[in-house]
Amino acid sequence: MKSFSRRRNPVKPSWQLSESEVTPESLFHDRRALIKALGLGAIGASLPGSVHAGLFDVFSSKETSAFVREPLSFVKAPGFDGAGEVLTPEDKVISHNNFYEFGTSKSDPVANAQGLKVDPWLLSVEGLVDTPLQLDYDDLIKSFGLEERIYRLRCVEAWSMVIPWVGFPLAALLKKAGVKAGATHVAFETLFSPDEMPGQKSRLMGGGIHYPYVEGLTLAEAMNDLSLLSVGLYGKTLPPQNGAPVRLVVPWKYGFKSIKSIVKIRVTDKQPPTSWNQLAPHEYGFYANVNPDVDHPRWSQASERRIGPGGLFSASRIPTLPFNGYGEQVAGLYKGLDLKRYY
């Protein structure tokens, strides 16, 4: 059962979005209409199959999740107690996913991920830490105070949405482990289980990625309050196609940066490799900050199609904001860094 904080005159942090801005899932029914509305048909046709991230089936779905999700106990972030707000229906968000371990089509993860075993689970925190940790499923759900945060999501494919995540700050976990002096980066690794993840068995089905999927942040990025380890969405535990039982959410970066089904977090003194940068370094940099001034080599990032409450056909193209609108919280992390060179 949900629990909500009851505070008088709560102060709404500037990064928070209202539940009215959460993308309605009913807007995702018509794949062809969406692609036409996005203006990406010609672009998608030119993309190699191994790297186009399922662009043409970006919002098609024939199935919904059969995975049993459990309700989570969490507090709303200050300023959002749920009064008068109606959250988006869940069916499309849990049916349209980029998770190449289960296939490159948007409908592949929900079809192929239902057998993933998420309990038991073991997440290790290691490297340059005072106290290496091993967290099981219950630790992830119960050891840290859970809260709901509504974040914008900006996909590198130039569409965007808004999602209510449930989780806890990554910084809380790193502080529990204790970061040693000299550490500069944090590396992440997804589960490697080819018997459960068919995309890991086939280079073709898995989009050409060398598995396990890996990602990384600078230590300063990882310690920023916005960096979230999510264990749920829409008030319930994550389904496997969305990265159960624990995934990263970094809202000022393109969506591929938010690695799913994490089994290892390693604190290091070197910049770690990242999967999409390894696959196509001229297209996907280490930082992956949302930057409207840096185009993808095959399309503009200056604007995005926000899938909002007005319906599929009224989804409007809006300017993309630097850092996905979270510049107030994160721009200082990149002071003096050439963001066009370090994209």
SSE order and pairing:
Layout lengths: L30 H8 L2 H5 L29 E2 L31 H5 L9 E6 L5 E4 H6 L4 E8 L4 E11 H8 L7 E6 L23 E5 H5 L4 E6 L2 E2 L9 E3 L12 E7 L6 H5 L23 E4 L9 E4 L7 H4 L13
Parallel strand pairs: 1-4, 2-11, 5-12
Antiparallel strand pairs: 2-3, 4-5, 5-8, 6-7, 6-11, 8-9, 8-10, 12-13
Catalytic activity: L-methionyl-[protein] + a quinone + H2O = L-methionyl-(R)-S-oxide-[protein] + a quinol; L-methionyl-[protein] + a quinone + H2O = L-methionyl-(S)-S-oxide-[protein] + a quinol
GO molecular function: oxidoreductase activity
Cofactor: Mo-molybdopterin
Describe the structure.
It comes from Shewanella khirikhana. Pfam families: Oxidored_molyb. Its cofactor is Mo-molybdopterin. This is Protein-methionine-sulfoxide reductase catalytic subunit MsrP. Residues 117-276 form the Oxidoreductase molybdopterin-binding domain. The chain is an alpha+beta fold. Helix content is 13%, strand content 20%. The chain is built from 8 helices and 13 strands. Strands 1, 4, 5, 8, 9, 10, 12 and 13 form an 8-stranded mixed β-sheet that branches. Strands 3-2-11-6-7 form a 5-stranded mixed β-sheet. A hairpin with a 5-residue loop joins strand 2 (122-127) and strand 3 (133-136). The radius of gyration is 19 Å and the shape is globular.
Overview features:
disordered N terminus; alpha+beta; 13 strands; 8 helices; 343 residues; eight-stranded mixed β-sheet; 20% strand
Mind summarizing the main beta sheet?
A: 8 strands, mixed
Number of helices: 8
Summarize model confidence as the mean pLDDT: 82
- Which residues form runs of ≥5 with pLDDT under 50? 1-10, 23-63, 79-89, 310-314
Overall number of strands:
13
